[in-house]
Design goal:
alpha/beta; two-stranded parallel ribbon; four-stranded mixed sheet; 7 helices; 219 residues
Length: 219
Amino acid sequence: MSRTPGGAFGAATTVLALVTAWYDELRRGVDEFFEYPDFFYFQLGDGGMADLGGLEIWPPHKQIELPARAQDVLAAIADRAVEYLFVEDGPPGSALVLRETKNSLPRYLRVAIAYGADGTVESSDVTVTGSARSARHVIDAIDESVDLPTDVRAARRDLRQRLSAAGSPTEQLRRIDLDAAVAMLCPLGDARANAPWGVGGMSEDALAARLVQVGAAAT
């Protein structure tokens, strides 16, 4: 889950490590296959989509651009039964969402991890180190992300090259709980302004009875 254009590349080595583990399991006793892991890339808001096909997030329908409204974001996670959620680190916000959407998240979600767009986070407790070859894959994926502005691609490429300056790209991540992950996916500001008014064709009064608050100010 990326909050900024190209921010997903901050966890690119981690994605490749997970993909490799998935393929290692699939290859046991199988000579030929045409399958990809059920990994999804969600890009929040405007600013252009990265192309993570080179990181094995494929076919293209698994790369999804979403409005930055919490209801849409959390529903996309729940509807796909996401078990491991990687969230781009950032300040917590709050929002009003359908109570059914909030309650469906813990049904599947097992682990949430915060990553940084630059490959680092404060108070990290997970480290993933790649190889020179994996670093080249990430640079290639950045170059192929033609929907990103040229300056964004250049900045992401520079960040990745700095991570690989010692020869092996190393990403630092932080394990977080579900509430912290949800708060990072909520916008800053008035929670009511981000509510999904108009969903289901319901009146504001009728819908208000079905909404609950999530995020930093939730009780």
